[in-house]
Structure formats: C-alpha cells, structure tokens
Amino acid sequence: MTRIPHESSGEPNPLRALGLDRLRRRTSMKWRTYPDDVLPLWVAEMDVPLAEPVVRAVGDALALGDTGYPAGTGYAEALAAFAAKRWGWSGLAVERTAIVPDVMLGVVEMLKLVTGPGDPVVVNPPVYPPFFQFVEHMDRRIAEAPLDPDGRLDLDVLEAAYRRAVAGGGRAAHLLCSPHNPTGTVHTAGELAAVAALADRYGVRVVADEIHAPLTAGGVDFVPYLSVPGAESGLSLMSASKAWNLAGLKAALAVAGPAAEADLALLPEEVGHGPSHVGVIAHTAALRDGTGWLDALLGGLDDNRRLLDGLLAERLPGVVHRPGEATYLAWLDCRALGLGDDPARVFLERGRVALSPGPDFGSGGAGHVRLNLATSPEILAEGVRRMELALG
Predict the structure, then answer these.
(1) Mind listing the pLDDT tens digit for each residue in 110-122?
(2) How far is the C-alpha of 177 from the C-alpha of 191, rounded, in Å?
(3) Is 298 left (phi over 0), alpha (psi -120 to 50) or beta?
C-alpha cells in the first residue's frame, strides 16, 4: 500500500493562529509553571487551536451529555485506517488493541505484563525523562544503551545491553522511543528489524512508545515497530495526543503483535476504566477527520525547523542543531557555549526563556537543551533572541 506521509491540505497553518496574549490565558502546565516574564518553550504542548473536527466532536458529546465510560472499538478502527493510509501498514488488528489511560501509563501496564519487580528495562538515552521516572517507580531497573553520536540506535551497544539484561536469568524489556524524543530520530525499517532480531535472540520484549508517529518531517517515513519482520512479540503504545495537542483529553491504545496477543489479554480490566470517554471521542475524530489540519501543522513544523536552523546559525553559531526527522522538539548541543551541564538554567535565569534541561534525559544530555518549536515563527524567533541575550 502506498504511504501518504504528507499531503497539501489547503488549511491554514495552525502555528500562526494564536498570539502570545491569547496563549497566556491558558492554564495548562506550559503556561503556569513559570512567571509571566518567562517565554515557555519547554514541555510538549503546542501553541495551536484545536482541529475543528475535534472541537465539533467534543462539543457534540457535551451537548448530548455523552460523558460516561469509554466503550467500543471506534478509536482502534480509526487508528488502523490512519496507519494504513499514512504508513502503508495494514497489520494493525483491532482485536489486538486495548484502550489505556495514556501512553506512559500504557507503557507501565505493558511492562508489568512482560517483566517482574527488579527486572531490567533497556532504554536509549538521551531519552524522554519519564522513561526513567516511571520505570523506577514501578520497581524495575534501568539499563542504558545510549544512542550513537549521530543520535541513532547503536546496535552493538544495544546487543551488549540485552546480553547483560538477561544474564541473571530473569525477564527483560526494551522500552523503545520511536520516533525518538528528544533527538527527533526516525528509526529505519532496517534498524527496527535489527532490534527485533536481537530481541528475539536474547528473549527481550520490546515495548515501543510511538506517540510522535504522525509528526514526521517532509520526505520522512515513519515505520511502525510491529510492521517489521520479527517483531511479532512486540507491544506498541499509540495516541493522537501529541499530533493533535490532546494531552489533556486522556486516551491511548496499546497494540499487540500477533505473538503478544495472549499477553495483552492479561491486561487488568480496570485499566480500561482510566481513559476519558470524551478523550476517546476526541482522538477518534482527530484520526478520522483531522488529517487536513495535521498536514497543515506538518508544513508549519517543517518551516519552523528551517527557521530555527537559520536563526541559530545567525545568532547562536556555537549551538549545534541537527533538525529532527520527526516530533516538534529540537535537541540543541550547547556545550561549546561554556554554560556547564545545564544550559537551560542559564537561559532561564538570564534570558527568561524556559527550555527542557538536557541532564534530565540521562546519558548524553549534559550540555544540551530541548526546545519546543511548535509555536509561531514570531515566538520562536523571540525565544532564540532571549537565548542570545543570556550569553551577553
């Protein structure tokens, strides 16, 4: 089946729709964590209005009083259709899915199915900080297999981590971030097939966090982990939350490969009570009817990646930036600026711009910051101006 990663929708770029005055009326984490004189370019919330099909679906549900408990397979069916069209993957079987509260809580539940207390979970730092927090909170051990200097999976390092993880005879899992946060790396089909082969060889169960899957740059294809040969025992978590800015409307899907169906069947029934019914309605509408809005967003993100690259080259040439292949997050190497392990602290204190601190992402994060570029070009330019100001 032909992949359609980007289309020209004709819809306006949602990143240009909202000014700073309106954004500061929001009460979410992004806009309430710091004082009003700080420009927030950190947590993964986008500065966009919601897609009209989502607003309409949620409004209709509220008007009807349809605010009970989630039911049915509409979300999974919408995701399966989206996956077939956008990624050329027709292997998402609705009967091998389960609704979970959100991606990270779904990750926890999947890891509970395939590992026990004290077992190791392999991660690829620098990586999304909650990977460390959630895994350790559920009494599993982090085993690091760092990315290579180009921000890609290092298969030799990964194999060594697998070997150590199973050396004690227990169970082990690999929590794979795909696309990778914070680097924006999109793992290739060959890389993912190699991961699957190693996992099969060592008996490691792969749990893939694929929440950023719809957010690829122009010309880049996302490859679902469960679509590659050898990944039949894998488990994936997917959601519309990142691509359509729906984090506050909780809902995600756990997807099992053919050989993991029995594992997914053991998911406790009460887990399905955690998602928001209104969230499920919103996510389903996004996947079914919000692709025009998504394509306009993707075009805007491509523009912002180019804009950021040019601004950094002009105003902060000491910052190393490799534009990501996916996500709306930029991973910036600031080590040449001499700001220490946590440049985000300096940018916040001196420039009043909030970025995500690199050390929070584990090995390889020192001297780096993560910048959220899902905002207007004007706000993005102001963020870079403030970073430059911090060096003065």
Answers:
(1) 999 999 999 999 9
(2) 13
(3) alpha
